[in-house]
Amino acid sequence: MIMQMEKLVSLCKRRGFMFQSSEIYGGMNGFWDYGPLGVELKRNVKNAWWQDMCAGHNELVQLAGAPSTFEMVGLDCTILMHPQVWKCSGHYDLFHDFMVDCRESKKRYRFDQVRGRWVSAKSQRIFVTTMVEADSEVEETQRKAQKYFNLRAKDVDQLVWESGFLSLDKLTPEEHAVALAPDANAIGTFTAPREFNLMFKTYVGALSGEEGAAYLRPETAQGIFVNFKNVLDSTRVKIPFGVAQIGKSFRNEITPRNFTFRSREFEQMEIEFFCHPTQSPGWYTYWRNRRMQWYRDLGLSDNRLRLREHHTEELSHYSCGTADIEYAFPFLAEGEYGELEGIAHRGDFDLRSHMEGKLDPKKRPLELERTADGQPKYRGSGRDLTYRDDLTNERYTPHVIEPSAGADRAMLAFLCEAYTEDQAPDEDGKMQTRVVMRLHPRIAPIKAAVFPLVKKDGMPELAQKIYGDLKKHMNVFYDEKGAVGRRYRRQDEAGTPYCITVDGQSLVDGTVTVRDRDTLIQTRIAVSELTQEIKTRIGS
Ligand code: GAP
């Protein structure tokens, strides 16, 4: 599987799906650029989400046996918001990971991501850690232990290993003293764990001091909560309703890794769904199922996808129930899954936090304030963010169900699922290994490629005409260079679902061949029906 990931990463660069940001200057860890194919794929993923969840939403839902409808509207909020937003959301006080530094290598690690194993030799017991991928950690810990104990290859059986791998945060402070850090030669070089807030800080305007301090948003969600009243007052939406937003979020991840899976700049596709508290469990179930089905509909297979309910101790500070949609990414060890999307029951936490209390303008910068029992003390806007039901006259603070997806992670999962190697006949009819990206036609960057079989006899002219006609409706590609078999292969790698070839017969009867990327079946279609045929096949 790791091998497949390496091939995918190389294809993504070679074919222009993704590049490391600022590559010519050595790159920036945790930042990625999308190339010509990647930008189309990502846009298609976001458009499919927007269309299915917001603009095209028209669903009748059975909730507790009764039919229920709801509305969806969109928002596009700023990345920088009033700092008090992050104080009230809890991010200012609570959005942190624990990190440890290594005094010897000067490297920094996320506390829970350093994994290691206890080993004894020469009457000493140490904890050997690594940061390598799961499939090579046994080999790497063995190599490090052998080096530390100065053992030759023939003496490795002197190493006595205990149980399996543990993460560093499971050790006691005394045990830390005998831990061997991933890039160190001596033991005991880890510092004590420290809190590290993941929000990027910047300064707004000419004020460079704390007066002008602001934070890049770590989630798009808060823009929706602080606009709750604006949406209610400017539209006719009634509860239950949802607000959708797609946009960039930023987190200063301590150890960004696994390609784009954990980045420092990424895009989220979030819905805040407002409902009556008594109906919230039903809507929570509805959204979990609906979001799972969305990934299935766009091609993720059930045997790599799962829905996992969080244990109580895993819940975020705001959540009274969360389920993750997870995918078995190929860079993870066998049996492990990575989060694609979280569906959280946030109760009334956010609206209440933004409502309670009064903002004291003199209280900036935002110092950590806690109540007597150690809980963060929030200072809300003091605005009324409750909802009044016109029919019943009931006034209440709505509960919120939040399906929160990552556009980059969804795209990575679609790419991982799509990467396939199969056997297909080459020009001479010989079976050859073919790399094909089996992307769902709806999200494929290029919908169809148009080829003249040869560069003469009027074929390029007809092919150009077809290309021009199709281009008005979808992203298509024209290619007349090289053998047609090689042109097919290039499109297979780009995930193009259909290749249209103009041949000798086209000039006689006005038909072309349409080759299906997955089945390799070629059908003759009249040029006059081509646009509609491709549109129907891609489902647009
Ligand atoms: N508003 C809730 C929220 O932000 P989250 O679980 O922290 O919840 C939601 O993030 C989704 O955003 C994740 O499921 C993931 O798809 C994406 N995401 C979060 N951090 C990310 C990162 N560092 N890189 C890429 N995607 C990330």
Descriptive report:
This protein is of the alpha+beta class. The chain is 28% helix and 28% strand. It has 15 helices and 30 strands. The strands form nine sheets. The chain has a seven-stranded mixed beta sheet. Strands 8, 9, 10, 11 and 12 form a five-stranded mixed beta sheet that branches. Strands 27-26-28-29-30 form a five-stranded mixed beta sheet, with helices on both faces. A hairpin with a 2-residue loop joins strand 8 (115-121) and strand 9. Bound molecules: glycyl-adenosine-5'-phosphate. The site of glycyl-adenosine-5'-phosphate has 19 residues, from strand 17, strand 20, strand 23 and helix 11. Residues 219, 221, 251, 253, 262-263, 266, 268, 270, 339-342, 402, 404-406, 408-409 line the site of glycyl-adenosine-5'-phosphate.
Secondary structure layout plus pairing:
Blueprint: H1 2-14, E1 18-20, E2 32-34, H2 36-55, E3 60-63, E4 66-69, E5 71-74, H3 83-89, H4 91-94, E6 96-101, E7 108-110, E8 115-121, E9 124-130, H5 137-148, E10 160-161, E11 166-167, H6 173-176, E12 179-180, E13 194-197, E14 201-203, E15 213-215, H7 221-226, H8 228-234, E16 241-250, E17 265-275, H9 280-297, E18 305-309, E19 322-327, E20 338-347, H10 349-355, E21 387-388, E22 395-396, E23 399-406, H11 407-418, E24 419-425, E25 431-437, E26 448-452, H12 459-471, E27 476-478, H13 484-494, E28 498-502, H14 504-509, E29 511-516, E30 522-526, H15 530-538
Parallel strand pairs: 5-16, 9-12, 26-27, 26-28
Antiparallel strand pairs: 1-2, 3-4, 6-7, 6-13, 8-9, 8-10, 8-11, 14-15, 16-17, 17-23, 18-19, 19-20, 20-23, 21-22, 24-25, 28-29, 29-30
Helix pairs in contact: 2-11
